[in-house]
Amino acid sequence: MDKDNIYQDYADFIFKYLLTLTNNSQIAEELTQKTFYQAIKSIDNFHDNGKAKFSTWLCSIAKNVWLQEINREKKKEKLTESLSNEEKRFPNLEEEYFRNEEKINFFKQVHQLNNKQREIMFLRLLGDLSFKEIGLIFGETENWARVTFYRAKQQIRKGDKTDGS
């Protein structure tokens, strides 16, 4: 086997074979290069004993190179996904700090409200109750609960502006 002409003789054939596997000419070109690199490294293992053609041997190398590339891509995707999940599990400490500061500030503001307003805020925001349900708890109308909640919100906003200046 003439090592010098292997690439010229078989490159187009291997490229087309890999193109059918990958459906991507850029990847097929890259894998063709890798195939010939592997073939040259192990050409002494090819025995021309009439059982297998050289082109078949090259195709088997090309297929292995392609399968290795698929496995490498799968591992890369798993790693990327794993790192992405890690970021979701461990939020940015600075963001967490400011979120906690905002919560503390909010609860300080709510603490300044009168008992009814505070309870309505807690029932609405933490208890996730409707205005109708809140009205029933206080023996008032749905509209009363809505207006009281709105006024409490306005009071918190006013307090937030004076504290934040």
Automatic annotation (TrEMBL):
Signal peptide: none
Gene3D superfamilies cross-referenced by the UniProt entry: 1.10.1740.10, Winged helix-like DNA-binding domain superfamily/Winged helix DNA-binding domain
Presence of the UniProt keyword DNA-binding in the record: yes
Highest taxon in the source lineage: Bacteria
Alphabetical keyword list: DNA-binding, Sigma factor, Transcription, Transcription regulation
RNA polymerase sigma factor 70 region 4 type domain mapped to chain residues: 110-155
Stored CDD domains: Sigma70_r4
InterPro entries (UniProt xref): RNA_pol_sigma-70-like, RNA_pol_sigma-70_dom, RNA_pol_sigma70_r2, RNA_pol_sigma70_r4_t2, RNA_pol_sigma_r2, RNA_pol_sigma_r3/r4-like, WH-like_DNA-bd_sf
Boundaries of every RNA polymerase sigma-70 region domain copy: 6-75
KW NADP (keyword) present: no
UniProt record similarity statement: Belongs to the sigma-70 factor family. ECF subfamily.
Protein name: RNA polymerase sigma factor SigY
Lineage: Bacteria, Bacillati, Bacillota, Bacilli, Bacillales
